[in-house]
Design goal:
With 97 residues, this protein is α+β, with helices and mostly antiparallel strands. It has 2 helices and 3 strands, in the order βββαα. Helices cover 16% and strands 13% of the residues. It has a 3-stranded antiparallel sheet with strand order 1-2-3, with no helix packed on it. Strand 2 and strand 3 form a beta hairpin. The longest helix is centred in the middle third of the chain and has 11 residues. The N and C termini lie far apart (54 Å).
């Protein structure tokens, strides 16, 4: 039996669940209190946005060659593991003693 979970940034701390794709949806709360502080007006205060660093060319090639094959939906390959626009770097030889 599969279970389906739906989370939304519009409803932090709440999850909609289903036992199967076509079953009725139930909303549950997983937070005891709001995960984010509120202002005096009752608006949520979110943390600062963290902008991720660009991944290295070597890592991009690794994702494309090794991970993309495990993504079941072929339309998602380019979204998660697209082919890098630069040629593959040559591995450096490290002298072992």
């Amino acid at each position: 039996m599969q279970h389906h979970f739906i989370m939304s940034r519009d409803h932090p701390g709440k999850i909609k669940i289903r036992k199967s794709f076509d079953s009725n949806e139930t909303e549950i709360s997983i937070a005891r209190v709001s995960p984010f502080p509120k202002t005096k007006n009752g608006e949520l205060v979110f943390p600062d946005i963290i902008i991720p660093q660009e991944i290295s060319l070597e890592r991009q090639w690794y994702l494309h060659n090794e991970v993309a094959q495990h993504i079941q939906n072929p339309e998602k390959h380019d979204l998660y593991c697209k082919m890098p626009n630069q040629s593959k770097p040559k591995k450096s030889k490290i002298n072992k003693v």
